[in-house]
Amino acid sequence: MPRLPHLLLGFALLLPAASGAEPIDRKALVTRHNPSLTHLDPWAPLSVGNGHFAFTADVTGLQTFEEHYHQKGIPLETLARWAWHENANPNGYKLADANRPFTAYGQTLGYPTNQNGPAGMWLRENPQDVPLPRLGLELDQPDGPTLVPSEVHDISQTLDLWSGIVTSNYTLEGEPVKVTVACHPEQDVLAIRIVSPLVTSGRLSVRLALPRGHDIKTKNNPELDWSLPETHTTRIVAQDGNSLRLVHTRDASSYGVDLRSALSLKIASAGAHAFRISSAAGDVLEFTVAFAPLGETNLPNPAPAPAATEIRAASTSQWEKFWRSGGAIDFSGSKDPRAAELERRVVLSQYLTAIQFAGDFPPQESGLTDSTWYGKHHTEMIWWHAAHFALWGRDAFLDKNLAWYVKSLPMARVLAQERGLRGARWPKMIGPDGRESPGGNPLIIWNQPHVIHLAELLYRNNPTPATLARYRDLVLESADCMASMLHWNEVRGCYVLGPPLWIAQEIYDQATSMNPAFELSYWARGLEMAQQWRERLGLMRDPEWERMRTHLAPLPQKDGRYVALESTPDTWDNKDSRHDHPSFLMALGMLPGDGVDRAVMGRTLDATLATWDWEAKIWGWDYPMIAMTAARLGRPKDAVDVLLKDGPNNHYMPNGHNPQRDDLPVYLPGNGALLSAVAMMAVGWTPPSPAGSGEARGTPEGNAPGFPRDGSWVVRAEGLHRLP
């Protein structure tokens, strides 16, 4: 079955903010934020991609300065969401080998939380994502062909967002060089064109080098592994004057490389696992290079990739369709000096998530730019990765992410049974096989309602029987598992959540944690959404779910403010408990506020803004998350101020990336959260259903309720959808 065009997913009709309003000039909006560089900046490599595959280039237009960018900023990699490798497992490690006992659901169960033993380490590190070949420039010089950054002058590089094409102009040794790179919107194929007198002379060439993998001794942002060339193979399948076909194999993992040109090429070996590509005549070196997963030995005869001109034309066509569809927000009439920067972040975040978040397996937190947590997907982050697609009218991107969850329901059912639960239990840190990774991961629970919430967003945009049928089992079985995770406390006359669990603010003891504020509210909302799905399907409300939903323990608070956790209510007494995510704020922000008292939440927001540790491990998605709470509380100035707060993890590079700490130069949940928050602030939210908490109701009147109405912000929005 042919792959769906990634960049054609989820197009929506344009919806002006008000009847008769002048439509936003989308081309002007987008292209005024084209990333443009006039100097080498290792924090600003530019990427092209199609949601499933991406290529990140330095200022030369290729990956010439891989080591420099990795050491000083953002790495240069070629990644595909289908590319994985697993090391040999001679000891036969299985998940139970990392178990530790916990008392849960009235019995003692083993949870694989031992991540530091031999079994735990192997299970965390495998499978790991595989980097595809590096493509860099080489220049023949007396001291060798390796270029260094200081040799590149007169730089002018631009990513044209409207076409998805990167164009790089510069000089080497006084000679002009122009490099153009584009990615096909449906196929994992690059079109590369280099024009220079240095090509004519044969001095400028491209080196294609195939790494062994990542150096997995480093969990986040590992270097490419060029060691042990004898442990992997690169086999030439076919070669002639204008093409090269390769199969790269390491253990049981293989992928193919198919390089072709309409022009004559010179192709020469350049050492183990490397080739030099140059022009046989003229000043143009142009070729396409395609990548595909393969079995251990087979190499099908694929149809030739589209020509380079066709790839550039297809990229231009699809990106124009992308930008003319879905939502748009224009801040150009605003007086607040921060408006242009917010608009830039919004535009670039749409591009970055589109090129990295539409694979057959949900994204890692660094997308397809570099590797983090061995390439694994963290299911607790899927909401921040993908909810914005529904809010921005690009539903099929979200549907693409949820497709893996639908397919993986049998695995989730087995996991639920192993944990003494009903329904389908979602693991936290996973590779494409869905197997849990050891650590605190198995005790994370706030990932469980996400699929219900995301399916609800899709239904709200497209309330059809087909939507109900597609996600029925996903919603109902995820909710049944949630219900089975609750315990009745006879003395208190309520249902409690945990222990054991690891709350979203990951600083508390997992064995004793009970009744976290955010998770309790999410349980109430998740069960309510599932009940509504039952009614839409013609079923009665589940009486057990209803009793649980309406008899949950109250959200914990102390001294008139919400605290993270009932069992350790020290949020405002202990400064060491005021770092990491202030997750209790999500109960009225990301969520509509089941169980929330607005006055208490207001005081909690005040305390967070005044006393939280904004320097220690607060994350990029926390800023938009807090802004959403401020917006729902009717505090738009606070919402904008925290959204654009100058914090250690709230900076956005010239290419739109949001780095975190020293080991996370790319962190895309920040971009996804930004898009969700801005959509909510621009068009508001709908009140909870009648069965929800009355405390959190109220749909704001007028346009842009999350922005101050003092004339400093002019917000024009179209094509956006409201959060519940």
Element layout with pairings:
Blueprint: H1 26-31, E1 36-37, E2 46-49, E3 53-57, H2 66-72, E4 78-80, E5 84-85, E6 100-104, E7 107-111, H3 118-125, E8 128-129, E9 134-139, E10 152-160, E11 165-172, E12 175-183, E13 189-195, H4 197-200, E14 204-209, E15 213-214, E16 224-225, E17 233-240, E18 243-250, E19 253-260, E20 265-269, E21 274-279, E22 284-294, H5 308-324, E23 328-330, H6 339-356, E24 377-378, H7 382-391, H8 395-407, H9 409-418, E25 429-430, H10 450-461, H11 465-484, E26 486-489, E27 494-497, H12 517-536, H13 543-550, E28 557-558, E29 561-562, H14 598-611, H15 622-632, H16 636-643, H17 669-683, E30 716-718
Antiparallel strand pairs: 1-10, 2-3, 3-4, 5-8, 6-7, 9-14, 10-11, 11-12, 12-13, 13-22, 14-21, 15-16, 17-18, 18-19, 19-22, 20-21, 23-30, 24-25, 26-27, 28-29
Q: How helical, in percent, are the residues?
A: 25-40%
Mean pLDDT: 93
Classify the beta-strand content into a percent band. Answer: 15-25%
How many separate helices? Answer: 17
Oligomer designation: single chain
In the CATH hierarchy, what is the architecture of the domain at 33-87 and 126-305 at level 2?
Distorted Sandwich
